[in-house]
Specification:
236 residues, globular, 8 helices, 10 strands, alpha+beta, 4-stranded antiparallel sheet, Cyclic Phosphodiesterase, Chain: A
């Protein structure tokens, strides 16, 4: 018997056959559509083994951008009901043209930064979709546990982020939402990594325009890795 998923998440994930998905999966070192390891990728100036050491965190989650962060299913909630709710949210939404994605660095409070793909400009439509997903699915989320609170250092959060974390289970939602597809761990020389990945991205992804066309329900398996369970097309 297969074990039940540890956690669920609703992410944005490009179509698995797209150049963007193949690029992101190669960079992080795993394809979350089929669970297969991707080995051998290394941008100029890095060897493959060293690069894998720089992508351990995004590899666990798979290439994605967060809408509803990972959560445990509430005791009274059913898996089928969650699927139906995600499908309905997707049906009510329309595809969104976000604009081009660019390789960027996102700084943390401790001076380190991680490399990610981010839109050139914010999208009000995307912000509304994120709000619908965060709020509309929160009834399926189990309350935060003591260990989940302990892992999120409150000293690194603003008052608003802390309140968002307590209410919605993730501090970087709603007013603090910023779409990003994480590519690396947090590192001290993120600019060097971003420059190398920028060259790879330009060479491999001819069309940098992001079209949000589906909600992706990810599940976490017993080995801790997340995989795509189902993609729900926007507009049905």
């Amino acid at each position: 018997m297969l074990s039940a998923p540890l956690r669920y998440a609703v992410y944005l994930a490009p179509p698995p056959e797209s150049p963007l998905w193949r690029f992101g999966s190669d960079v992080v070192g795993r394809d979350a559509a089929n669970g297969e390891t991707r080995q051998g990728f290394a941008p100029d100036g890095f060897d493959a083994a060293a690069w894998r050491g720089l992508t351990t965190e995004p590899r666990r989650y798979g290439f994605h951008a967060t809408l509803k962060a990972p959560f445990r299913l509430a005791d009274e909630a059913g898996r089928g009901e969650l699927n139906a709710a995600v499908a309905e949210l997707a049906r009510q939404a329309k595809p969104i043209a976000v604009g081009p994605l660019v390789v960027n660095t996102l700084a943390l409070d401790d001076g380190a930064a991680f490399v990610a793909l981010t839109p050139q400009a914010p999208s009000a439509e995307l912000a509304r979709l994120e709000e619908c997903v965060v709020c509309g699915l929160d009834g399926f989320r189990a309350p935060l546990s003591d260990s989940e609170r302990a892992r999120r250092d409150p000293n690194r959060l603003t008052a608003r982020q802390h309140a968002t974390f307590e209410r919605w289970g993730y501090p970087y939602a709603l007013a603090d939402f910023r779409l990003h597809f994480t590519l690396t761990n947090a590192v001290d020389d993120a600019e060097r990594l971003a420059a190398a990945l920028g060259r790879e991205y330009a060479a491999r992804v001819a069309d940098p325009e992001l079209i949000v066309d589906a909600l992706a329900l990810f599940v976490q398996k017993s080995n801790g890795e997340f995989v795509i369970d189902q993609r729900f097309p926007l507009g049905g």
